[in-house]
Amino acid sequence: MTQRTLVLIKPDAVRRGLVGEILGRFEAKGLTIVALEHRAIDAEMADAHYAEHVEQPWYPPLREFAVSGPLVSLVLEGDEAIAVVRLLNGKTDGRAADPGTIRGDLSLSNRENLVHASDSEESSAREIALWFPSL
Ligand code: CDP
Ligand code: MG
């Protein structure tokens, strides 16, 4: 089933010069980029994106990280794209993520973990509408 998923290449990845490396992995897998933007976000946008997490004790430092510099937002399309991109990203905690995944190969942090991807069809629809309202 062809799906679309919302991906963020987070500020740590932009600072570290890993945008090309990360985009290359998605393209090499066969996923199609259907929208892409380099932008900075404010706290309001961070809160909207992370609505499910705003009450977490670890949310204030996450918000600070999310607004700490530019990021790249994109929509990827392909067969089973939502699950496939979560697999390519790897587990949330870069220290525990499997080698071969983006986080497993390139992140040593539970917060600065380089990438975000929608986790369900519902979140994909919500996040694509939030980040790319014209799609
Ligand atoms: O991004 P993912 O769906 O894998 O993880 P999440 O549980 O939905 O958490 C969202 C984001 O919050 C993570 O990707 C981390 O950047 C951050 N986080 C954090 O800062 N501290 C935690 N204890 C857990 C997550
Ligand atoms: Mg999540």
TrEMBL record:
Keywords: ATP-binding, Cytoplasm, Kinase, Magnesium, Metal-binding, Nucleotide metabolism, Nucleotide-binding, Phosphoprotein, Transferase. One of its GO terms (molecular function) is kinase activity. It comes from the Bacteria. It catalyses: a ribonucleoside 5'-diphosphate + ATP = a ribonucleoside 5'-triphosphate + ADP; a 2'-deoxyribonucleoside 5'-diphosphate + ATP = a 2'-deoxyribonucleoside 5'-triphosphate + ADP. ATP binds at residues 10, 86, 92, 103, 113. Residues 2-135 form the Nucleoside diphosphate kinase-like domain. SMART domains: NDK (SM00562). The active site is at 116 (pros-phosphohistidine intermediate). The keyword Ubl conjugation does not apply. Its EC number is 2.7.4.6. Its cofactor is Mg(2+). Pfam families: NDK. NCBIfam families: PRK00668.1. Belongs to the NDK family. Major role in the synthesis of nucleoside triphosphates other than ATP. The ATP gamma phosphate is transferred to the NDP beta phosphate via a ping-pong mechanism, using a phosphorylated active-site intermediate. Homotetramer. This is Nucleoside diphosphate kinase. It comes from Aeromicrobium alkaliterrae. The lineage of its organism: Bacteria, Bacillati, Actinomycetota, Actinomycetes, Propionibacteriales.
